[in-house]
Amino acid sequence: MSRPSDGSGAGHASKGAVAEPQTNLEREVERLSRAVSELSTLNDLARAIGASLDVEQVMRTIVARSLRALDAEEGVITLAADEQSSSLRTLVREVGSSLNVEAFHFKNALLGWMQIHRMPLLVNDPPNDERFRGVEWEATIRSLIAVPLVVKGKLTGVLTVYNKKGGAPFDTDDQRLLAIIGSQSAQIVENARLHDEELKLAKIREQVQLAAEVQRHLLPQPIPRIEGFDIHGTNVAAELVGGDYFDVVPVDAHRWLVCVGDVSGKGLPASLLMANVQAMIQLMAMLQMSPDSAMRHANTLLCRSTPDTKFVTFFTSIVDSASGLFEFCNAGHNPPLFVTADGRCERLASSGAALGMLETLPYSSATRTMATGDCVVIYSDGVTEAINAGDEEFGEEQLAALVVASRERPASAIVAAILGAVRAHAGGHPQSDDITIVVLKRLGAA
């Protein structure tokens, strides 16, 4: 008996029907296996970077795990310091240890694209990619995936991997995984970066505090007692450190150098320059130079050692405690007030330009004799240029009237009156410049 003609065909059809479900099953197993691998990668990454606040360590870990997950040759994280800036600063590069490839960076076109679109970018044929027509790519770049690091809507950086090992192209699954890594990592990188900045700022604050302490010790503490005279001074910096300076230095048994200086600008740069000036002035006092000679030498040294944009106004004087002779030289400084016991007020005007402007400028000294009750008020422009909410300056006239009215009071009281009046004038307006006041008053015979 012959077999049915369709028996053999039915048998073949049955085998074919079994083969197709097996193929689908294999695909599903592969998909699930990849999903498990991705979850494992993300969990490992979260554990590795979640507890660290070292920004470079965090970024190196992210790059290393990304290379491993995508089987890529090279990776980089680039932080955007400012969202409005098109220039991104590369902080970390991680290259596979077995590779020897030349360094390469983002092209301007790629940077611009990421700033505008802020979405994952997959490029498998850089020279022929229509999105970057005309861009010159390095020969080492065969393919890349770039994903944005976004925190609260702000682009804080870019994570990029280059060149799949073996020459294969990146696929959409690679892009999706790197996008997830970037999304998961963005806030952690930003937290670590902010922590790093806080540590740097704390160190800077510590250094500025130390500079302020050093500067306070440059001022006379306490102010020396000059026989037959009442002297008091104060310095109030607009910032933690400032560019104003005053000093009272013995020249010999009867003569004392009394000076006030003001460096252009304020803050740490001004304070550093003023420390240099202070050292020069004290040396010149030890050498018993006259005020005009001291200013000439100081000007020469500053012109040779400071930028053209920096200068110092300076008033230096030598008072003789025995005779009351007051010899002075004003190098572009605010004219001090010479107020007599009977209320006459004279401005001790400049006899030379500010120090550090031009090496060949001349300086000359002048003299006054201080009688009993006469006083000299030396101040910086932070006094007269203090402004209020109406943008009105305190001014020289108001200062002169106050000093004349206060001339019979002790030097410390005159300083306090000036400082109080300036603060009252400014009201709640912040101090915009350093304030220095020195009052020298001749006493009567004991």
Largest sheet: 5 strands, antiparallel
Number of helices: 9
**SSE order:** HHEEHEEEHEEEHHEEEEEEHHHE
Q: Can you tell me the CATH class of the largest domain?
A: Alpha Beta
Number of separate structural domains = 2
What is Rg?
A: 38 Å
Cα end-to-end separation: 154 Å
Runs in which pLDDT lies below 50 for 5 or more consecutive residues are 1-17, 82-106
Mean pLDDT equals 82
Question: How are the strands ordered across the major sheet?
Answer: 2-1-5-4-3
Share in β-strands: 15-25%
Instruction: State the helicity in percent bands.
Output: 40-55%
Number of extended strands: 15
The CATH homology group name of the largest domain: PPM-type phosphatase domain
CATH topology value of the largest domain = Phosphatase 2c, domain 1
* Shape annotation: elongated
Annotated CATH architecture of the largest domain: 4-Layer Sandwich
Q: Give the helix/strand class.
A: alpha+beta
